Design the sequence.
């Protein structure tokens, strides 16, 4: 695609420059920043992947499940007195407040996911509707939630919330890793490992895998399909709520009605990149997408390239591995 | 996926077999066929198909004449004035209808979910702009020539995108097309020759001057533009009808219904998917070029994912797979915010809620799809009906179209 | 019903001009047809009357999925003009073999030749055009199309109209569309679904759907017609009709490959039977011989027939 | 400033060239206490004089005109760009109300047309407006894109229009005789900003970051040219971008002591916030697109290092305008409210002088030469103001306050 476009452009415009020195100079900071954002992508991507695994549905409304979580964080922390300034609190009070915000966000997101499932998808499932219908419904739900928030909160982002001032922790290859990056990456990875173990070990997890593999047989074997589906949506919601906290931590002024959409698209791309339906694929895809975007924008000289690079890589990966890097396997084995 | 382990492709075929057999025996063949397709539209479709050809022709002529006269009549309740010039509103409705008809080929016929359709519209717009605007460094050609060029360029992009990605199935295609749409928009920003948000001014228009020296196709003059797009729309509808009632249309529907089975029945599915993509892209490019000519200014705004999704919404609202439905859906999606400017704030919310409600309660859209896939089907079906054994032909299923000229029905 | 003797050759020698079996005649009379299926499917085609030569050769076919060997070095032939049954217990590899022949799976090793040309690695639609058509175990009609349209999709495999030709309604398009209606209706009459030509296929009864699948496959003008458990879900009377139909098809000069669980049907209609078990061929012979074969008996005793359908 | 960002309230008022930056001696109160020692403290302006002879909408009260005489506003009323439009048409409404109250014999009508600020939607409303013969003058369109798309329609119909906020320099290169710009364009602001950075702010190495908008690119180009050797590097960001870590690491590695962000506050605010969060201690300067209370809200504490440039006038320092506006709109005057007010005043003065058809009103504006509340209005033959001014602003106690004209 790039080459064809390049041909159609007058020769005088060298609009692609590879700035290798800049990449070398900024390599480690790009890596750590990419991993931080990638971890957030990955948490949201899990929600897409789980629902896709069980229902074969791209839950386009998941980005709104996420943004509702962001508003949960915003209202909780605003209520607790957080604002644009660095809070004047001791370490444990901050931790306590953040945990509270985390819980509220997770509950808010999970509740949204639950309502979306019940109101929009369940009636369709009952009628055995074609998949396009599900997808359009998902898009409709996404628009509805987004613009409900728009009408309620207006077009502007909410006031910035600073949770704590990032302090340097490590110095790796001359680049500082700060406390914020560390908190986000560690917490996200812990949550994902927990989710992975839950899916593969617990009784409910086995049920999820069984439904993903073959809903009809799973039902015959005594698995309550409806309960599994709703559980899957709720797990996705909980993770999206957690992602919301880290997102607001990273981008304090990112709470906005439309804030979820772009991130949702990226997270979905991450899920596809890693292999949709695959829990570990979501982690891998998220981190990779974060890294690729960051390297790409530095190499090509402007952050306007981030999405172009990310999507081009996604397309290329899909051409080589049509089912993503790790393949689709939430209990599914395709011949 | 394995071919044999999949779910029963015709849901409940086995389970409901006995019931259907009984019903069929009782009521005679054919009559139960389209029972689920209820509602007032069904009776309309049935009545329409029952009309003799001459009457269908007469009604069609009236509808087309009324459509042409729409901006001249400027009917009081329907008019978008005083907020928006009604002739231009008509133009916008026709443009949206044209886009929806093109996208309907991709989504409605071939069942390929394209979430980046706006990219082809953008390619068409930019082609027309860059070949006519004084802000561009390219060679300049008369505007009317840019229209076929824009179609060709958009089709080329359709093929370039389609060949690698159409091997992917369903949802992967959705994300890849969505990504492609974003890439085109971002490249319009990144490539200096495409002028980013600065854009191209004074895009060309068809020749001709009014008595007072202003161009007939001035961007303030909606009526000639509307007539132009309406004419193009009718031609595209006729051609789409031709394709629908040919092996091409049958191949598309077969792919939509069961891609593996289609391939095994000898349909070169990949080739026809690329064709669907290319034809859809061509119509998108065509509408883009017409739009660029009317507005006279093209920049990188408004070629975003949300616009793509509005296009999809137009197709689905009208009834995916039905080209007349696509016209209706496209026109409505454009008309409602222009007419009810007071509710502009709410339009996306209304869209969202409407999409959900329509999908839940009327998932086949306002005008449910029923393609007529045989150019001479009426001959055969009439024979079946006449033989007395077949009962009445099913309402939607009596493809009463023997010539392409009815495509606009 | 095991009347079929190993008299494959004599019956087939009658080839296209054979007298149709009586059931078939009755059926055709009932529907007022006086046209043979070959006439409808391929009016211009020379049906090869020479029988007995190898039409399809499966040579040392092996298919592996990961570590699992689904087919292990299987070889057999389909001779022109015969009805070959492919049987075996569940999981024996019948459907895998079938899918390999129709291009769904790629052979890990070995070859499949149709009239001496390898079909391995060909695209599925090309294989269909080479002359190999199939039906599906679980019906896969195009649900939103009428019965007639379904059949015409099959006929399109032999059409040569281009996209441009269809767009502009060039003469070839018009010619092909007109003949498609005639031939499609003839095929529907042949399988007995003509009354429902205008009915959406998803609204057809189960039996009609099965028959329509056969008509659609026949429409592609195959050299070999592969039927994947065509009698699944049929009652005995329907099975009788189906057997008659298959015989008529063969009688008109088509070669048929039949996968079936129902032993009665297989024994009643086939000329020859290949038996698979655990991915290996364990027997190959005329029905009466297969019936006596101890290994086949053992294989089937291991799994009661009731479970199989 | 012409694009899709909502600008919320910040009072802006005006004087002309005679503004007294010298009388602005009061130190800023509190607030700006972030302790980067290398930051220059420039005192805030507290009051400015309005020109004594400023033309006001009321005029002499003796105007007469037909009751059908109508002025139009065409621009965003709804959508994401609504706030800017509301600021403008409230300013216009105020001017018309004052005029009609004082001139019983001339009751001018006011009609609004909604474009959502979208060039693709603008032709419908503009075509509608020009087709209504009673409309003899228009204030609009606020954004450059929509102005480009529709300028020729006004030209064809000879309908004069004054944009209160579209700043793209090329708009006056089209040969349109009906287009007039009521403020300085980007080509004026860029050099002023560069001079402000290297002069008053004493920056040695300036890193310039621009967004992908028409505005950001144009202003960025003008500024970087004027910065010359003080330019330490440039980068581009995207509208809607949330994460700026890659840009920031480049800036920090470049050891720049100031950043000029050529774009809008929606990206500028999180950018500055993340910049400071990553340990950047230099100053941050943004143009009128960034100068907004939303910036302070979104950037939080980080905004203390921020300065702004704007071709707009600090309207909140003109008490009469501020109180009248508040009474009408129940809100503080916003960015470009006074530009809308002044533009309407120019047209109303013409109507009172008997210029009551499109042709004569156009000539009136063309030859206009008088003070408005915010500045002196006299256009050159292309439709640009002859003497626009650019103001500098800073943040004090969480508020944006003017620090006087820059770039002179």
Sequence:
């Amino acid at each position: 695609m790039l080459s064809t476009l390049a041909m159609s452009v007058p020769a005088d415009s060298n609009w692609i420059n590879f700035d290798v020195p800049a990449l070398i100079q900024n390599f480690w900071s790009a890596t750590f920043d990419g991993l931080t954002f990638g971890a957030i992508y990955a948490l949201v991507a899990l929600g897409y992947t789980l629902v896709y695994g069980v229902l074969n549905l791209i839950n386009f409304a998941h980005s709104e499940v996420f943004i509702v979580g962001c508003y949960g964080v915003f209202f909780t922390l605003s209520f607790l007195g957080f604002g644009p300034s660095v809070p004047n609190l001791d370490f444990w009070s901050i931790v306590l407040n953040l945990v509270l915000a985390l819980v509220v966000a997770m509950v808010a997101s999970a509740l949204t996911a639950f309502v979306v499932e019940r109101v929009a998808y369940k009636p369709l499932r009952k009628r055995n509707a074609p998949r396009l219908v599900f997808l359009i419904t998902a898009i409709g739900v996404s628009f509805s939630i987004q613009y409900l928030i728009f009408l309620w909160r207006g077009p502007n982002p909410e006031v910035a919330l600073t949770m704590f001032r990032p302090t340097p922790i490590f110095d790796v290859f001359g680049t500082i890793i700060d406390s914020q990056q560390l908190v986000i990456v560690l917490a996200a990875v812990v949550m994902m490992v927990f989710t992975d173990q839950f899916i593969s070990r617990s009784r409910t997890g086995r049920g999820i895998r069984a439904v993903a593999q073959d809903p009809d047989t799973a039902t015959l074997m005594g698995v309550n399909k409806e309960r599994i589906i709703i559980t899957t949506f709720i797990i996705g919601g909980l993770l999206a709520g957690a992602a919301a906290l880290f997102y607001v931590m990273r981008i304090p002024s990112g709470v906005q009605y439309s804030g979820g959409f772009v991130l949702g698209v990226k997270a979905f791309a991450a899920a596809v990149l890693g292999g949709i339906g695959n829990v570990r694929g979501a982690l891998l895809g998220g981190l990779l997408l974060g890294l690729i975007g960051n390297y790409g924008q530095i190499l090509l000289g402007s952050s306007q390239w981030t999405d172009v690079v990310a999507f081009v890589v996604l397309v290329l990966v899909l051409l080589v591995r049509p089912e993503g890097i790790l393949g689709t396997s939430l209990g599914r084995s395709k011949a | 996926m394995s071919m044999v382990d999949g779910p029963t492709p015709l849901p409940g075929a086995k389970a409901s077999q006995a019931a259907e057999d009984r019903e069929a025996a009782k009521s005679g063949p054919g009559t139960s066929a389209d029972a689920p397709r209820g509602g007032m539209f069904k009776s309309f479709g049935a009545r329409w198909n029952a009309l003799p050809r001459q009457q269908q022709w007469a009604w069609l002529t009236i509808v087309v004449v009324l459509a042409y006269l729409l901006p001249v009549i400027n009917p009081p309740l329907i008019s978008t004035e005083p907020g928006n010039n009604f002739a231009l509103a008509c133009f916008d409705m026709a443009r949206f209808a044209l886009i929806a008809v093109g996208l309907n080929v991709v989504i409605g016929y071939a069942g390929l979910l394209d979430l980046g359709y706006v990219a082809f519209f953008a390619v068409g717009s930019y082609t027309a702009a860059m070949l006519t605007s004084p802000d561009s460094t390219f060679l300049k050609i008369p505007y009317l020539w840019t229209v076929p060029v824009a179609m060709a360029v958009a089709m080329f992009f359709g093929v370039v995108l389609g060949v690698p990605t159409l091997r992917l199935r369903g949802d992967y295609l959705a994300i890849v097309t969505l990504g492609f749409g974003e890439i085109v928009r971002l490249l319009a920003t990144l490539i200096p020759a495409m002028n980013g948000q600065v854009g191209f001014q004074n895009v060309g228009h068809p020749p001709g001057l009014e008595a007072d020296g202003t161009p007939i196709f001035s961007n303030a003059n909606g009526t000639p533009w509307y007539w132009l797009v309406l004419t193009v729309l009718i031609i595209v509808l006729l051609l789409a009808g031709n394709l629908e009632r040919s092996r091409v249309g049958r191949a598309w529907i077969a792919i939509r219904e069961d891609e593996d089975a289609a391939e095994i029945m000898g349909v070169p599915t990949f080739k026809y998917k690329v064709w669907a993509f290319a034809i859809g892209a061509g119509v998108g490019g065509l509408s883009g070029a017409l739009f660029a000519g009317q507005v006279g200014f093209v920049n990188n705004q408004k070629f975003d994912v949300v616009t793509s999704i509005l296009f999809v919404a137009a197709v689905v609202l009208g009834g995916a797979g039905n080209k007349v439905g696509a016209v209706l859906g496209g026109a409505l999606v454009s008309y409602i915010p222009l007419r009810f400017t007071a509710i502009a704030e709410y339009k996306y919310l209304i869209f969202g809620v409407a999409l959900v409600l329509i999908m839940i309660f009327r998932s086949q859209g306002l005008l449910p799809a029923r393609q007529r896939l045989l150019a001479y089907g009426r001959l055969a079906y009439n024979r079946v009906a006449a033989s007395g054994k077949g009962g009445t032909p099913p309402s939607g299923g009596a493809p009463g179209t023997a010539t392409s000229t009815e495509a606009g029905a | 019903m095991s009347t079929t003797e190993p008299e494959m050759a004599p019956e087939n020698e009658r080839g296209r001009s054979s007298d149709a079996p009586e059931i078939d005649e009755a059926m055709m009379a009932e529907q007022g047809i006086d046209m043979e299926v070959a006439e409808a499917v391929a009016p211009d085609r020379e049906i090869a009357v020479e029988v007995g030569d190898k039409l399809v050769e499966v040579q040392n076919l092996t298919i592996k999925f990961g570590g699992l060997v689904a087919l292990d070095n299987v070889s057999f032939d389909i001779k022109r003009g015969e009805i070959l049954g492919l049987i075996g217990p569940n999981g024996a590899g019948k459907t895998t073999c079938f899918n390999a022949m129709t291009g769904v799976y790629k052979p890990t090793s070995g070859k499949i030749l149709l009239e001496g040309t390898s079909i391995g690695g060909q695209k599925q639609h090309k294989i269909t055009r080479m002359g190999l058509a199939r039906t599906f175990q679980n019906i896969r009609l195009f649900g939103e199309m009428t019965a007639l349209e379904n059949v015409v999709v099959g006929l399109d495999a032999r059409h040569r109209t281009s996209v441009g030709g269809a767009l502009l309604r060039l003469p070839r398009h018009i010619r092909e569309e007109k003949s498609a209606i005639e031939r499609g209706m003839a095929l529907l009459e042949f399988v007995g679904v003509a009354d429902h030509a205008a009915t959406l296929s998803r609204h057809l009864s189960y039996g009609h759907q099965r028959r329509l699948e056969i008509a659609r496959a026949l429409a592609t003008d195959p050299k070999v017609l592969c039927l994947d458990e065509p009698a699944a879900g049929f009652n005995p009377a329907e099975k009788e009709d189906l057997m008659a139909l298959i015989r008529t098809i063969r009688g008109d000069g088509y070669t048929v490959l039949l996968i079936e669980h129902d032993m009665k049907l297989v024994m009643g209609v086939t000329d020859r039977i290949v038996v698979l078990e655990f991915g290996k061929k364990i027997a190959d012979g005329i029905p009466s011989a297969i019936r006596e074969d101890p290994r086949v008996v053992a294989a089937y005793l291991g799994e009661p027939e009731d479970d199989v359908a | 400033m012409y694009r899709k960002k909502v600008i919320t309230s910040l009072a802006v008022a005006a004087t002309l060239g005679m503004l007294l930056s010298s009388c602005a001696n009061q130190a800023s109160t509190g607030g700006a206490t972030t302790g980067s020692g290398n930051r220059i403290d420039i005192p805030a302006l507290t009051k400015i004089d309005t020109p004594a002879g400023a033309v006001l909408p009321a005029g002499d009260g003796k105007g007469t005109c037909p009751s059908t005489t109508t002025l139009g506003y065409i621009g965003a009323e709804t959508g994401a760009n609504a706030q800017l439009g509301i600021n403008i048409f409230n300013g216009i409404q105020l001017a018309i109300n004052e005029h009609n109250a004082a001139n019983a014999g001339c009751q001018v009508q006011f009609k609004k047309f909604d474009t959502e600020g979208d060039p693709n939607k603008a032709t419908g409303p503009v075509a509608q407006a020009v087709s209504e013969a009673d409309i003899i003058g228009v204030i609009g369109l606020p954004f450059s894109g929509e102005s480009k798309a529709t300028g020729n329609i006004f030209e064809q119909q000879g309908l004069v229009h004054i944009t209160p906020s579209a700043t793209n320099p090329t708009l006056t290169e089209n040969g349109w005789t009906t287009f007039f710009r009521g403020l300085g364009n980007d080509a004026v602001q860029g050099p002023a900003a560069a001079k402000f950075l290297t002069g008053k702010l004493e920056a040695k190495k300036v890193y310039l970051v621009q967004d992908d908008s028409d505005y950001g690119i144009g202003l960025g180009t003008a500024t970087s040219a004027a910065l010359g050797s003080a330019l330490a590097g440039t980068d581009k960001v995207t509208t809607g971008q949330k994460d700026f870590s890659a840009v920031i690491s480049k800036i920090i590695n470049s050891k720049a002591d100031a950043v000029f962000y050529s774009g809008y506050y929606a990206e500028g605010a999180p950018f500055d916030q993340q910049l400071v969060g990553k340990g950047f201690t230099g100053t941050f300067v943004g143009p009128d697109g960034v100068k907004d209370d939303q910036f302070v809200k979104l950037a939080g504490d980080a905004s203390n290092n921020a300065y702004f440039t704007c071709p707009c006038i600090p309207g909140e320092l003109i008490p009469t305008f501020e109180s009248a506006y508040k009474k009408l709109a129940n809100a503080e005057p916003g960015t470009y409210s006074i530009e809308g007010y002044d533009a309407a005043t120019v047209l109303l003065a013409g109507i009172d002088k008997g210029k009551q058809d499109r042709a004569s009103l156009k000539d009136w504006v063309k030859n206009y030469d008088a003070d408005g509340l915010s500045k002196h209005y006299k256009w050159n033959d292309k439709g640009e103001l002859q003497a626009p001014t650019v103001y500098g602003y800073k943040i004090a106690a969480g508020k944006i306050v003017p620090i006087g004209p820059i770039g002179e």
